[in-house]
Amino acid sequence: MKSAIRQRALELGFDDCRFTTAAPPESAGKFQNWLIGKNHGEMQWLERNAEKRVEPEKILPGVQTVIVLAASYAQRDSCSVILDQATAAHHESRITNHGTIARYAQFSDYHDVLGERLKLLTKFVDELGGVNARSLWYVDTGPILERDLAQRAGLGFAGKHTNLISRKLGNWFFLAEILTTVALAPDAPEKNHCGHCTRCLSACPTDAITAPFQLDARRCISYLTIELKGSIPVELRPLIGNRIYGCDDCLAACPWNRFARAGKLMEPHARTDLRQPDLTKLLGLSDADFKSRFANSPLLRTKRRGFLRNVGVALGNVGDESALPALQKAAADSEPLIAEHAQWAIRQIQGRLI
Length: 354
Ligand code: SF4
Ligand code: SF4
What we know:
The relative contact order is 0.16. The termini are far apart. The strands form four sheets. A four-stranded antiparallel sheet has the order 1-2-7-4, sandwiched between helices. A two-stranded parallel sheet has the order 3-10. The protein is an alpha+beta fold. The protein has helices at about 1-10, 30-35, 45-50, 50-55, 75-80, 85-90, 110-130, 145-150, 200-205, 220-225, 250, 280-285, 285-295, 305-320, 325-330, 335-354; strands at about 15-20, 65-70, 100, 135-140, 155-160, 165, 175-180, 210, 215, 245. The protein is built from 16 helices and ten strands. The model is unreliable at about 80-90 (pLDDT under 50). The protein has one domain (about 1-275). The chain binds iron/sulfur cluster (2 copies). One iron/sulfur cluster (SF4) binds near residues 203, 204 and 247.
């Protein structure tokens, strides 16, 4: 049954498919301590469903197996320049008036793309499992410690940057899971393969990786530009560079990316218009423009107010004099969050002009 499921998963376009039991992940205690230490910042949803997150039985009574799936979002042109990504990111951050968006977000929304295939695979599992089989799928859509289950399933290992790395796919892939009452033999777990490497720690612009395997989300640019709803701390703004949605630096620095390969599922959904957007144009988006410009993309998550806040910060860091008219307009925006960050950006640019 396992090989039939794996085969079907690969046919559907997933790049890997592994199996583990539904027992709570061994790292459940560490996760609880991470929450107690308030390292999750404003991500209250992590607290609200912490109990379910560490115990799959609380999500699906009778669950026996977690099927873990990977879908690569590496793009062909990114696979050949893997080792020098950190330098490339640094170089990009100097491009005047242009922003950088995390690679995973430069596609149509992965929830939709993967969700379609997960529905089909879940149906397949239920059919194989017989009349009493029950299964449900997640792609970042439910409370589950997916990274740790994926490591236990042997799909990859948690690197010192705290993200999952696959020895077959590098760092650029999405994870998804199917929880099922069908009992299937678990695969062998994966172990850490970081060795003496510390590239990701050195690459992090904000020192958010406070020690190997420890992330202070409150300093992480992905958190600051996506999850944080309010004002970005002033002392962290200059470190954000031109990143307007997420950050790839620790992933890009990882030598395991030499094994990255473009995946079948995501590649047709790449959005080249999100590669290096013009920041001054973005700053002029109305609410309706924002929704239509980023329709079906993960960028909608921040809403206009969070996104234009980020654009303001990026222009404050990499903008030149030509960005001032757009910033002056944004500085009078009826949304105070946007106005405040635009005013900060104007002061930054004017400071550079002196
Ligand atoms: S995503 Fe960026 S800011 Fe966050 S830990 Fe990685 S390198 Fe640091
Ligand atoms: S960059 Fe090095 S230390 Fe960091 S996750 Fe990759 S292998 Fe591990």
